[in-house]
Write a structure and sequence with these properties.
Number of strands of chain A: 10
Number of strands of chain B: 0
Shape of chain A: globular
Strand content of chain A: 15-25%
Oligomer: heterodimer
Radius of gyration of chain A: 19 Å
Helix content of chain A: 25-40%
Distance between the termini of chain B: 57 Å
Order of helices and strands of chain A: HEEEHEEHEHHHHEHEHEEH
CATH topology of the largest domain in chain B: MetI-like fold
Largest sheet of chain A: 6 strands, mixed
Strand order of the largest sheet of chain A: 6-7-8-3-9-10
Number of helices of chain A: 10
Distance between the termini of chain A: 53 Å
Structural class of chain B: mainly alpha
CATH superfamily of the largest domain in chain B: MetI-like
């Protein structure tokens, strides 16, 4: 399924051909060129025409080795922001450039190809409870699998091999055939991580991965995500309301408040003053 | 930076805090008025139809006499006749076919007609809803009459009538089941680049599979109950026997036929309840 070559970067320079999806080598090339993998420009979103604007012109860049934290109070628009990037929520205005490709206007079919390249990890895990751990992980390959094959769950042998490897990496190799609803919260999130990595993603969207977990498991899960992101060289964009965790695991931070970006920078430059601004109150 | 003054979490109770009623003014009036109007309409209906309430009381005595003199003893031997039994077998087959065809038709209708999962809310959703509702709007007996008029006597109009009935019946229940799913897995499948059919197969179907099986069994049960009567209009099955004997005022045979219908429907209902309980346990 050939897709048209995309126009070169407006500023000239890089001339990488971009075919269906993005290849692993693109990340390296982008990194070497010091360019942002994801550029969000003046993004706006609202759920209903007359409803309140949830995102009020957000801009930021994500580079190849970034592990971004998005922090902010409840209702600041963190989840909406992350869902705009793979268009589970349609932005109302602004641009999102993924490997220099404008994605807010992609037609349905190309949107599906784009989504294959963006893994997502969810707050409530969003596993298919009545399927086995294996089938849940394999479902991460749906975008790559033909409809008929997938209806009969005939995934290619190499996908099954990859699923087994990933399950081994997240420490669930003994639970392959268990039903997803038989696992504990931490284990379920590990299945979610393996499923996202099954896609061979070029970007990971992580939506409050630890809110449903206790503090100890939260730390383990964050460490696992961080480790996997490093290993698979995937940049991450992680919504998180636990500021401690954000400061511990993320190299850059965006602070959102009421749909407006209040902070954007390396995590270590964030201080008490910034936090007070983001949360509009005394923190700590 | 200047912070806005923090508002206290609990505002001190004002004078209005002492007055509380569960139903506030416009609501309370509407509730009261609707109860009154239902009662008024009830009395009006009884008056309008001129129902002699005193005769209702005497009804049970007369009914007992009629049953004991005319319908008792039921002619059980008649219902054990090979001719009648072959019609019972026909009825069972007819109900099964009608239920299967109806279920097959209702699955895509339920998908297109569920608001959350419909591939097109503007076109497919209303069309699918309209088809399902039309199937339900027409009573199964009317479907039978209609198809007998078009196709003539026999099993085919009966099967078609049951198919339409089951399509409406199962289509609505299936769609409601799809509308009640957790959208989390659906979102996850979409986010991974799955197409609509894959989202249905992985995100939706596992969640509704058990409920669908239960509904399918229930549909068969209801189809069988309907199948016992569609023959009354010539659409095949044991209903034809019922009609013939009623017209011939063979009351003891009618009693036996009614008894056989009641027993068969009871058996199918018990079997379906048992099977559904089994299925639910597999959840």
């Amino acid at each position: 399924m050939a897709m048209p070559l995309l126009p070169d970067r407006p500023g000239g320079g890089n001339v990488l051909p971009r075919l269906a999806g993005t290849s692993r080598s693109d990340i390296v090339a982008w990194k070497d060129a010091g360019m942002a993998i994801l550029e969000v420009r003046n993004l706006r979103a609202r759920y209903t025409v007359s409803g309140p604007e949830i995102l009020k012109g957000i801009s930021f860049n994500v580079e190849a080795d970034d592990f971004f934290a998005i922090i902010g109070p409840s209702g600041a628009g963190k989840s909406t922001l992350i869902r705009c990037i793979n268009r589970l929520v349609e932005p109302t205005a602004g641009e999102i450039l993924f490997f220099d490709r404008e994605i807010t206007k992609l037609p349905r079919r190309e949107l599906r190809l784009l989504r294959r390249d963006i893994g997502m990890i969810f707050q409530e895990f969003n596993l298919i409870d009545r399927m086995s751990v294996m089938d849940n992980v394999l479902s991460g390959r749906l975008g790559y699998t033909g409809t008929l094959r997938s209806l009969f769950r005939l995934f290619p042998r190499e996908d099954i091999q990859r699923a087994l490897e990933l399950l081994d990496r997240v420490g669930l190799i003994d639970h392959v055939d268990k039903r997803a609803d038989a696992l504990s919260g931490g284990q379920r999130q590990r299945v979610g991580i393996a499923r996202a990595l099954m896609q061979d993603p070029k970007l990971l969207l992580v939506d409050e991965p630890t809110s449903a977990l206790d503090p100890k498991i939260s730390r383990e899960v964050m460490a696992l995500i961080k480790q996997m992101a490093n290993e698979f060289k995937v940049p991450c964009l992680c919504n998180i309301h636990d500021v401690q965790l954000a400061m511990e695991f993320c190299n850059k931070t965006i602070g959102l408040q009421d749909g407006i970006k209040m902070f954007d920078g390396p995590t270590e430059t964030m201080n008490k003053g910034n936090l007070e601004k983001i949360y509009a109150m005394e923190v700590l | 930076m200047n912070r806005p003054p923090q508002s206290p979490l609990v505002t001190p109770a004002g004078p209005s805090a002492c007055h509380w009623s569960r139903f506030k003014f416009p609501d309370s009036l509407i509730r009261y008025a609707s109860w009154i109007s239902v009662l008024v309409f009830l009395t009006y209906t009884v008056e309008y139809l001129d129902i002699p309430l005193d005769r209702l009381l005497g009804m049970f005595g007369r009914m007992g006499t009629t049953l004991s003199t005319r319908y008792y003893p039921p002619d059980i031997g008649y219902t054990l006749d090979v001719g009648y039994l072959s019609y019972v077998v026909d009825t069972i087959h007819m109900a099964f076919l009608g239920a299967i065809f109806g279920l097959i038709a209702s699955i895509p209708l339920a998908w297109f007609g569920s608001f959350n999962m419909s591939p097109s809310r503007r076109w497919l959703y209303p069309i699918a809803r309209l088809i399902t509702m039309s199937c339900r709007a027409v009573h199964e007996m009317i479907w039978a009459i209609l198809f007998v008029a078009i196709l003539g006597f026999g099993m085919l109009p009966g099967v078609l009538a049951l198919t339409f009935f089951c399509t409406g019946f199962a289509g609505k229940l299936f769609a409601e089941e799809i509308e009640a799913i957790d959208v989390g897995p659906v979102e996850a499948m979409r986010a991974s680049g799955a197409n609509q059919l894959q989202v249905m197969a992985f995100g939706v179907f596992p969640q509704v599979r058990v409920a669908f099986t239960g509904i399918a069994i229930y549909t068969w049960d209801v189809a069988f109950r309907a199948a016992t009567v569609v023959g009354f209009f010539g659409a095949g099955g044991m209903g034809w026997y019922l009609k013939r004997n009623i017209l011939q005022v063979e009351t003891e045979r009618v009693a036996a036929i009614l008894l056989s219908i009641i027993i068969l429907v009871l058996i199918s209902e018990i079997a379906s309840a048992w099977a559904r309980a089994k299925v639910m346990k597999m959840n």
